[in-house]
Design a protein that fits this description.
The chain has about 290 residues and is α/β, with parallel strands linked by helices. The protein contains 9 helices and 10 strands.
């Protein structure tokens, strides 16, 4: 039986050269963009084929998504044809996702018609298909009961997931740092290889999803809030101003060691501003900021 949820990332050509083999063990799946818009080769994601090969070589199950610009159902069917052309001979274990978020997309029932047209075409070709969008759209423009039968991948960069309807995946951050690179981070609450491959499925209750989501979101929050553990770990541009503020205001660290601060990025930047204010009050010219 699968252990859920599973942690993954989504990537596109904008992530550059991603060493998926090096991420094995840190992520359990990857969702790879295949392209955007209608069925035109110049709108293929330039790294789709490469990223699929890397994922399969690393033994990381993958899914795919297409970014929509469809103005009507005819264009949505062209976007489905785009996706299916690139999927020939491939088996996306984490399904196919229709990325509906662009500001140019139509209003009202036309947008719902687009989603239905795309998902029906992909499902008729034998693939598992779902809808990706951010929380507000899923609660408003994409809240039609006509879409209830399609799985949802919710983007909400937050410490909690507020979507009230069933969903299979949650994109909880756009700042997941792995091996020095930043990715969108996701949790999968369903056993997608089982859904797409005919194996036994293990679902989770809403209470289990909420508990794990809270725990993992809190972990991410704490990691970001304690980015700089000690004075010595501060970046070069911040070290001198922070030490100055601690010294002149008589502040103390968070632990037994006076140099331990457990500081987040926002706190550190605030201290650099305070250092400049202190210099001004003393009638001194602050040293030039060096962010190299």
């Amino acid at each position: 039986m699968a252990t859920l949820p599973k942690k993954g990332i989504d990537i596109s050509e904008f992530n550059g050269d991603v060493d998926l083999a090096a991420l094995k063990g840190q992520v359990e799946f990857v969702i790879i963009r295949c392209g955007y818009g209608g069925d035109y080769p110049n709108q293929d994601d330039t790294r789709f084929e490469e990223n699929v090969k890397k994922a399969e070589a690393a033994g990381i199950p993958w899914g795919t998504y297409l970014y929509s610009y469809a103005k009507d159902p005819g264009m949505a069917r062209s976007e489905a044809a785009h996706t299916l052309r690139l999927l020939q001979g491939k088996c996306p274990q984490y399904g196919v996702w229709y990325d509906v978020e662009d500001a140019s997309l139509p209003q009202g029932e036309v947008l719902v018609d687009n989603v239905v047209a795309y998902c029906q075409a992909v499902e008729q070709a034998g693939y598992y298909c779902g809808l990706y969008s951010f929380l507000y759209w899923l609660q408003t423009r994409l809240n039609s009961p006509r879409l209830d039968s399609y799985d949802k991948w919710v983007a909400q960069w937050s410490s909690q997931l507020d979507y009230q309807k069933p969903c299979g995946m949650w994109q909880f951050t756009d700042k997941l740092v792995l091996n020095g690179k930043t990715f969108d981070g996701n949790w999968a609450f369903l056993d997608y290889p089982a859904l797409t491959g005919g194996k036994e499925e293990q679902d989770m209750t809403q209470e289990q999803v909420e508990k794990i989501a809270r725990e993992q979101a809190q972990k991410v929050y704490e990691e970001n809030e304690k980015k700089y553990r000690t004075m010595d770990s501060l970046p070069g541009w911040a070290k001198a101003p922070v030490e100055q503020v601690y010294r002149e205001l008589g502040l103390s660290g968070t632990g037994d060691e006076g140099s331990r601060i457990d500081a987040g990025e926002t706190y550190v930047r605030a201290l650099t501003v305070i250092a400049k204010v202190l210099d001004k009050l003393k009638g001194e010219s602050p040293a030039p900021e060096n962010k190299s």
